[in-house]
Amino acid sequence: MAADPGRVRTYRPMTDIDAPEAAPTRVGDEGLDARLVVDRGAFRLDVSLTAAPGDVVALLGPNGAGKTTALRALAGLVALTDGHLRLDGAPLEDTPPESRPVGVVFQDYLLFPHLTALDNVAFGPRCQGVPRAEARTQAAAWLERMGLADHAHAKPRRLSGGQAQRVAVARALATRPRLLLLDEPLAALDARTRLEVRAQLRRHLAEFEAVAVLVTHDPLDAMVLADRLVVIEHGQVVQQGTPADIARHPRTDYIAQLVGLNLYRGRADGHAVRLDAGPSLTTTEELSGPVFVAFPPSAVTLFRDRPTGASARNLWRCEVEGMETHGDQIRADLTGELALAADLTTVAAAELDLHPGAAVWATVKATQTHAYPA
Amino acid sequence: MTSPLGPDAATGPRTGRPRRRRVGTGGRRGVPLPLLLPGLVALAFLLLPLLALIVRAPWRTLPDQLSSTQVWQALQLSLVSATAATAVSLVLGVPLAWLLARTEFPGRGFVRALVTLPLVLPPVVGGVALLLALGRNGVIGRWLDAWFGITLPFTTTGVVIAEAFVAMPFLVISVEGTLRAADPRYEEAATTLGASRFTAFRRVTLPLIAPGIAAGAVLAWARALGEFGATITFAGNFPGRTQTMPLAVYLALQDDPDAAISLSLVLLAVSIAVLAGLRDRWMTGA
After folding, report:
1. TM segments (chain B) (predicted)?
2. Minimal Cα distance from A113: which residue of B?
3. DSSP characters for A321-366?
């Protein structure tokens, strides 16, 4: 990364990002208002989070960014070094986890293996002092709602991954939390189950009237499930906004990579942007000062010989570093004058005789680039 | 495992078939002699004395030997006091194991080492130490005697105390190990559901570590049943009151070896019964 400051590797196809714009969060007595500071020697988490009731916020970030620490701090399982935590106006910093109106769905669910699904869900109400019979009735209703009435008396080891996930959600909701936390709620599922469970979870979250915060490293999960993304890197919030906003205007390599864009930092002077990585790039936007320039790998055209013809703008001499297939597309990683990712069809790749080490000319049309102030 | 010769060649003659290998059958192939011989010697060493006990047992007079009230008194006392010592170990030892496994406090490693000390301490030394602490003139025993009129040495309670002193570390170490292996996040999950730490322990941790506790209790019980040194030092050797089976065996050996053998047979039978009873539950895979 240090060698290529403006370089962004793109691995993921563009996600469907045209989600409706979420209303700006209202900060008041209702909902969540937190600044979480956790100091762990070399690592420091400092994240501010606000959310209104009904909001679903996704903490998105690479491994080790501090997402899970933030979640544990919200649950009270990790003490705050500094900052504050208010839920519906009540300060919670000094409240022990068992007294917080917070429900947690853990990554591997942590269903109590010695209890049936029903008793797992009844556990929370029982701890809140609800009599056993009443707690079981409530639990049965939750399982019914999750479509698990038939599995009420099954032990967790006899549940499938998707069923266990729903029991975990029911168990967390049964305490009627004002803040629901989900740690990588879909990570433990296989790809097929994941699709189905994601849709169900989205429905349940939409029905949930209080604040939900979920942690994930999967942008698709985040974009499908959440109204608002908070991207965390190295313990800091690097960007937040609606999924659409973040996908259109990524501000870090990590985010650009997530949404599948080539991203460069540079300095604009009119239509020309002098990239930090070296060459210049022409854009349709007219800007001045520090900017980001982004374009999808599909906007890149490759030639084996220098294309004859007028425009020498946005034309760079590159070398193929690596190639991988994405469906019927080939994603080529290029180095050279400008490091970038290019998508082309397998047919085109064969005609160009592309292989690692091959020299190519890469070009991108100005109309397909997108520049915005940094 | 792909090999140019195909899967059969890879797993075939050289490494043996996936058949269970047993010493003494065709599976001996591949067992090095320097391991096989000492292993067999060890097995013989462990089993021969028990075999001798059975061979030399006075089978004809056995019913008479065992019908004496002293034998039954000793056996009863042994079983009752070992069970009581195990109960004491459970009630006090499980919380101690939890403290050692789940809390942070200065000097925890040192405390842990102290707990294991009775494991390696000669039991006689333990008995002497108990006398100095709880004896009539002991550091604590003096006050127990003066204030409550309680005397512990040379009583059945003293037997239980001596046995618990020796046996509890086995339980603590076993339960602590199980606790460390158990995922503490289950307790966290319980906490986020509104359970206090104690409720989480009682309703989640305890059921999860039950097999470990049971194994530890069996170890402790077996250790208490065979306890000799600390018992005879702290509780003496009074038939019917403090004379447990091991003491009775030792005493009988002095003047009636046949009686000693008979008593030993009874203890052996009890031990085998316990092992057999537990084999399928907790000892498989061990």
Report:
1. 30-55, 75-101, 113-134, 146-175, 204-222, 259-278
2. B208
3. EEEEEETTEEEEEEEESS-EEEEEEHHHHHHTT--TT-EEEEEE-G
